[in-house]
Structure formats: structure tokens, C-alpha cells
# Entry
Amino acid sequence: MDKRFNGKKNSIFQGRSVLSETSLTPAEMNYLIDFGLHLKYLKRHNIPHRYLEGKSIALLFEKASTRTRSSFVTAAVELGAHPDYLGKDDIHLGKKESVEDTAKILGSMFDGIEFRGFKQSTVDGLAKYSGVPVWNGLTDEWHPTQTIPDLMTLKENFGYLKGLTLTFIGDGRNNVANSLLVGGSMVGVNVHIVAPKSLLPSENHVEIAKKYAQESGSEIVITDDIDKGVKGSNAIYTDVWVSMGESDWEERVKLLKPYQVNMDLMRKTGTPDDELIFMHCLPAFHDTKTEYGKEIEEKYGITEMEVTDEVFRSKYSRVFEEGENRKHGIKAIMAATLGDLFIPKA
Ligand code: CP
Ligand code: NVA
# Structure
């Protein structure tokens, strides 16, 4: 619990950290999705929402980022807070100073801390020792500040969540897949994970999701069978085949080529056009206009990886709306956990 609230909290969110989806109850997850959409409306209509006036926020990044960093910075500024970016070469964390010591110092100066990096234990440790709300901006295991905005995107498109089917296809045991599996199951979205056997999610993550699914009525399907896995989907979701910190491109290209999202795969859903969207957390390898894209073309002769350019630019694609929603969702998370809002029990 954040030491500054002195037990006088106006909402159950105050002082809390978001380290993974499991930091929240399903009701809290639903609340943050709706609050994010509300904050998007306020921003669109130029209605001020400076819930974090005078607060300082530390943004710790061990890995690169476009969307998460920009979201935290712009959301913090629009909430009235001051964000400070602390990149991996700017601070001593891990090299000369432990997580515990760093957390104690940062917590004594900043009101909230975002962390993007490798180990989940680092973000957990920052929360344990800093005494202020800590937000996970992606670790090797989880990406909760992706899930909440993604569920906002689904709700925006369909008007509801319960009963929709989201299919993640690709590296089914990466951070985004884990987070969607658990986050979706919390709010009643059926989650299908479709991946080669060696890239299916761990038993532990599936177990967590199944427990939530029992309560919410969501259906979990874990399979390497593409036809079975994509059938009936409302959202086809994919992510890079090789995540930050990994390097086994050759093996992944070989394993995941059949799992590429192309028009053929979109048709395999059997879903009517107006009930089907394509999602991707981004960045995406849909052409050869990147260094990696060019290198992969030279080495393996493919010009598109996890998604074809055709699907990426198609009428199904919501990837840029999804990207923008990162900001509004992250704003909701920061405002709820650090602001002095009155929020009736979610
Ligand atoms: N989706 C996502 O986390 O993007 P960035 O890596 O650009 O932050
Ligand atoms: N799985 C990807 C997500 C990037 C937003 C990675 O960790 O690199």
C-alpha cells in the first residue's frame, strides 16, 4: 500500500500496482477498460482531467519502446504529472545498484514508477520496496498495459466483451499471449491460442486463465491446429515471432511460417466481415521496410512475417486504433492507482 494515502483512500485502486493482469480482479479490469474509454472521450472533447497534478513519475526502460513510452509520457502530462525517462544506461539499476536499493530511492522521490524490461522479478521487486504504485510496461512474462487497451479496442468495435472470441496466433508463450490469455478470460472473452506445440503457453498460465474462465464463462482453447483454432474468431491477433531479448530467428521462421496471418487465414475464421477484426500490439513485420525485415528476406526469402501487408492494411485491421488506445488505457491505470478519484467499489 502506498505510504502516502495513510489509510484514507477514496478508491480501492489507490496505491496499488499493476504488475500483471492478476494484480486486478475481473471487476477492476472491467472498470479500467471503461475508465480508459471515458478518458479517451474526455481527451477527444478537450475536457481537462488533471487527476495527477503535481505528481512525478519515473519511466524505467531496459528495452526499446515506441508506444509504451509515448503513452506513459503523454498520458502523464495530460494528467498533470511530470514524467522522467530513465533508460538502461542512465541509471545504476542492475549494474551497480540492486532492485531493492533503487526502488527505495525512486519511491522516496517519485509518486509512481513504470518499468519495462526483462525479468518479472524486477518489476515485482520495485513494487515491493518502493512504496509507490508500480506499472508493468512489459516484461518477458506479462504485458498488462497492452491487455487493458486491447480489451478497450475490442469493446469499442463490438460494444461488448462477454462472448467475443479472440484468437492469438504465433508465439503462444510470449508476454502478449500470456496477458491476453489471462486478461481475456477474466472478462468473459473466449481466448484461443494457436501455435506450434513447442510455442504453446505454459501449464501455469493456462491454469490461471482457466480459473478465471470458470467464473466468467469464457472458453479457452489451446491448440496447434490452425483450422480448429481460428474458427469462429471475432479478432485475429498476432505478434512478432521473436520477442525482445530473444534471437532464434531461423527456428522461429521455420516453425511459425504456417501460422502467418494472411487473407486465407482470415477467411478460415468463417466469421462475417463486419464481425471480424485484425489486431497486433505492434511493431509488426508486414513488409521489408525495416532492418530486420530486410535481413530476414536476404536469409530466408520471405518478405512478410507474422502478418501479410495485405491483412495489415485491410479493412479488418485495427492496429493503429489499438496503438492509440495504449495511451488512454495507461492513463486510466495511472489515474486510478495514483489519483484521488472517488471510485465506488468495482
Ligand atoms: N506494443 C508495444 O508495447 O509497443 P512498444 O514496444 O512500441 O512500446
Ligand atoms: N512480444 C513482443 C511485444 C512487443 C510489444 C516483445 O516482447 O518484443
Summary: The chain has two domains: 21-142+326-338, 146-324. The chain has a mean pLDDT of 96. The pocket of norvaline (ligand 2) is lined by residues 138, 174-176, 239-240, 243-244, 281 (CB under 6 Å). The longest strand covers residues 56-61.
